[in-house]
Amino acid sequence: MWRLTRKELRGILRDRRTIVTLVLMPLLLYPLLSIGFQQFFLSKLGTARQPAYRMGFHDLRDGEFLSSYLARGGLNLKMKDDRPVGFMPAEANENPLFTAFLTPQLEAAVREGDVDIAVRVLNFPANLNAGHNLAVDCEIVFDEDSISSRAAAAQLEDYFTAANERFLETRLEAMGSSQRARAVHAVRKGVSSATTSGDAAGGVVSIAAVIPFILILMTITGAVYPAIDLTAGERERGTLEILVAAPFPRVGLLFAKYVAVLAVALLTATANLLTMWLTLHASGVGRLLFGADGLSAGVASAVFCLLVLFAAFFSAVLLVLTSFARSFREAQAYLIPLMLVSLGPGMLSLTPGLELKGLLLVTPLANITLLGRDLLQLKATGAAVAVIVVSNMLYALAAIAVAARLFGSESVLYGNEYGWSGLFDRPTRTRQAPTMTNALFSLAFVFSAYFLVNSELAQWGGASIAMRLGLAAAASVVVFGGLPALAGRLGGVPLRCAFSLRHAGLRAYAGAVLLGVSLWPFAHEIVVLERQAGLVTFDATFLERAMKIIAELQSAPLWVLLVGLAAAPAICEEWFFRGYLFGALEAGANRRTAIVGSAIVFGLFHFIVTDGLAFERLIPSTLLGLALGWVRGQTASILPGVVLHGCHNGLLLTAAHYQVQLAAHGMGIDEGEHLAANWLAAAALAAVVGVLLVRWSATNLEHTDNPREVL
Amino acid sequence: MIDVSELSKIFPLARGRELTAVDRVSFCVKAGEVYGLLGPNGAGKTTTLRILLGLMRPTHGQAIVGGFPSSEFPDEVKRRVGLVAANSGLYPFLSPREMLLFFADLYGMGAAAAHAALDRLSTLFGLTEFLDRPCGGLSTGQRQRVNLARALIHDPPVMLLDEPTLGLDVWGSRIISEFIAHVRQQGKAVIVCTHHLDEAERLCTRFGLMHIGRIISEGTLDELRQESGCRSLVEMFLKIAQRREAGAAP
């Protein structure tokens, strides 16, 4: 695989067009953009008719002193009796208008956006006579996250400089004595409004959202050429047929091409990010956009990681379209609509005040640009990052699977001669298991649907527990049951094969029951160990929510809990994870991959919850997934897994429901304490017997000539 | 080595129409034999080769190469076949050395075997002088030689040549003729598809004349002459085709 990838990269990197896109474009683009931005920004400041800034003072005494002093620098003051002082520029229509307000809480006023800047006199002079020596220190309080605030501070500093120079000239003329160069020395004091308000909230397009958007567009530019050349280009130059005439799996060929496209896209992203960073740093635009420190290395690294994720997703999408194309020109024709479609979610991210939540978290491209904006504004949450990473990786996997199916297929290879109809034909023969393409596509859909449904259900907090459990069960049936069933039908796989609905024998069910009731102590021990290792921290919000849920569970009838949280998830999740997904992975790779792969996905689904990340569930859920996968592999059926899963959930729910009664009988369990050794020994014994029973049933299955009847 | 029986390929067209590109074609090719699949453009020759190689699935019938049905075991078939097509291209930014080693890799050859095959084929086809130059800068003849070497890199027992002399000058065609003679000497089973009947006459040991998806006549040159009463393949093809069409007409 590496040698294939190396060949693809060699071919691409030797092409001058790649080098131009990689190196010359960013080298030219960012300095030009920087100059353009500066010109735009300065011209906006210069041509605007008296740009108005709001300046805050602590009291009238400060205002009167400073207005009198700043008048020397060209900022004339017009005093009004009891109203805020107003500063008028010396030359109207050329310099900005400063309107002053009295605001006792200067930092808060700036942070909340009540004023653009505020000035505090730190040591008020005893003698204000201009003929005397003067040494006053001031603070200019400004918002580091606001362009207008930074511009106002810079403007005011200029006035102070001019006033100081004028003062010094006067003093030198009059006395010629030693005089401090700056009679009034003002220093800036920055505050941040990133978490309270900002340009975006104020109705202005966020510059922070523009940066990732530009980088994403440039990364797309870098990926487009290799994607076309390595797929449609193969066909145009006549190498596609000899390539697919070799006994090498098409998915392998396509994956090598994917890695090559991804590598070039990442090289482009790196070159662009580096050039942008250097340009922002050298031109000073970085300080204008991101405050005194400019674009920090930490934020730039986070944006790079984001570009890696985006490149991984978009390279796969590009390969789907270009694999379909028969020539360079045709591929370009396909990509233009993709670009236009991509601009939509990208532009959406520039909308002021748009929050990254719900549907946007799983909307391709929009989620990445919005996450980029939030990273630059230091607002990104771990849960959002996890959902976006997982969803984009699943989309990428699904896209690669589709591209592999298209690349070099009969319909694409010879499509111009005989038409495309074959490409969309449903399979004429029934399959025994879903294809990997079908399963990965279903997985991407199921993940997005699962997340959206959970987000929606979280809004139903006011409904009764029975109503919410009923809705959750119905959603599980649709998401984990309906979507894969539809995919299986379209893929020509009968339900009984797609979901491994086979009788498994009494021993298998007995083993599953034993495993179902004996695994929870180990899950409990893992959570306790995680907590002791500091991997899991329960904050007050989490504990409050957990207590509320337990109280609700205790108030609901037990049968409602068992149906909604034990039976429904057990049936639906086993139907999808150990039925559909496991079957496809086993057919496409092998049983071990199917067990591990389905367990990891199962763990991830339990790790990401609607309003955060449940770290404490990741390892226990993945391990439970491994156990369920092993049972599925041994019995060739999902039914024992359904029993195991149902028993596991049901036991925990029953214990939670009767928590008070159990505690009264001395059987209460402390969440933070290890279980007694005899409990663990009993659980281990039951688990071993369960494993032996399942294994025994599997041995009988292997030796029988007549496989168990399919339901 | 190659056994084709009752092979058909029907392509669905727009508005429910169908195109029968290959219609119940059957023939065999033994090791050391050069079989000429002859016919005009659109006769179904290339489609037959593509099915043989496992690149297309037949609608009916089957093609067996080296004991493996191509639709069921395409990878086994591909391992045993070398393909040279008129439109086969090269990677412009790779050198012949890189390209040949890349294909050796695709066919699962080890590094030592791949380099040995590269040395052998470089000498055989005279690639040495331009072995490390980018393929994009090679002449048509040089490109053709690289393509032939590429098809032989894994030493397949079966060679499929689809219009191998298309667009080549006299010298280029001579290279192909020498190549076919060489692989025949090595005992490989060869199928040559061409519509240059005079050229096929010189190269092939047995012939299948294809017309509108069907093999209308098959045999050695002497057998075909006897059947048709004509000297050249061109004359006999026209005569047989006209006779068939007249017979098919109501």
Structural features, described:
The complex is a heterodimer of chains A (711) and B (250). With 711 residues, chain A is α/β, with parallel strands linked by helices. Chain A contains 28 helices and 9 strands. The two termini of chain A are 42 Å apart. Among the domains of chain A are: 143 residues, D-Maltodextrin-Binding Protein, domain 2, CATH 3.40.190; 203 residues, no CATH class. Chain A has a 7-stranded mixed beta sheet with strand order 2-3-4-1-5-6-7. The longest helix of chain A has 34 residues. Chain B is an alpha/beta fold and 250 residues long. Chain B has 2 domains: 169 residues, P-loop containing nucleotide triphosphate hydrolases (Rossmann fold), CATH 3.40.50.300; 65 residues, no CATH class. A 6-stranded mixed beta sheet of chain B has the order 6-7-8-3-9-10, with helices on both faces. Chain B has a 4-stranded antiparallel beta sheet with strand order 2-1-4-5. In chain B, strand 4 and strand 5 form a beta hairpin. The longest helix of chain B has 16 residues. Chain B is globular. Chain B starts with a strand and ends with a helix. The model of chain B has no long low-confidence stretch (mean pLDDT 85). The chains are: A alpha/beta (711), B alpha/beta (250). Chains A and B meet through helix 1 and helix 8 of A and helix 2, strand 6 and helix 3 of B.
Output the keywords.
heterodimer; A: 711 residues; alpha/beta; D-Maltodextrin-Binding Protein, domain 2; seven-stranded mixed sheet; 9 strands; 6% strand; flat; disordered C terminus; B: 250 residues; Rossmann fold; 2 domains; six-stranded mixed sheet; four-stranded antiparallel sheet; 9 helices
Helices, strands, pairings?
The complex is a heterodimer of chains A (711) and B (250).
Chain A: H1 2-13, H2 16-47, E1 52-57, H3 60-70, E2 75-78, E3 86-89, E4 97-102, H4 106-111, E5 117-121, E6 136-143, H5 147-174, E7 184-191, H6 207-230, H7 232-236, H8 240-244, H9 250-283, H10 285-290, H11 297-324, H12 328-348, H13 366-376, H14 382-406, H15 410-413, H16 415-418, H17 436-458, H18 465-490, H19 495-498, H20 506-518, H21 520-532, H22 540-555, H23 558-588, H24 591-607, E8 608-609, E9 612-613, H25 615-635, H26 639-657, H27 659-664, H28 677-703
Parallel strand pairs in A: 1-4, 1-5, 6-7
Antiparallel strand pairs in A: 2-3, 3-4, 5-6, 8-9
Helix pairs in contact in A: 1-9, 2-6, 2-9, 6-9, 6-11, 6-12, 6-13, 9-11, 9-14, 11-12, 11-13, 11-14, 12-13, 14-17, 17-18, 17-23, 18-23, 20-26, 20-28, 21-25, 23-24, 23-26, 24-25, 25-26
Chain B: E1 2-12, E2 18-29, E3 34-38, H1 45-52, E4 60-65, E5 68-69, H2 74-79, E6 81-85, H3 96-106, H4 111-125, H5 140-152, E7 158-162, H6 170-185, E8 189-194, H7 197-203, E9 206-211, E10 214-219, H8 221-228, H9 233-248
Helix pairs in contact in B: 3-4, 4-5, 5-6, 8-9
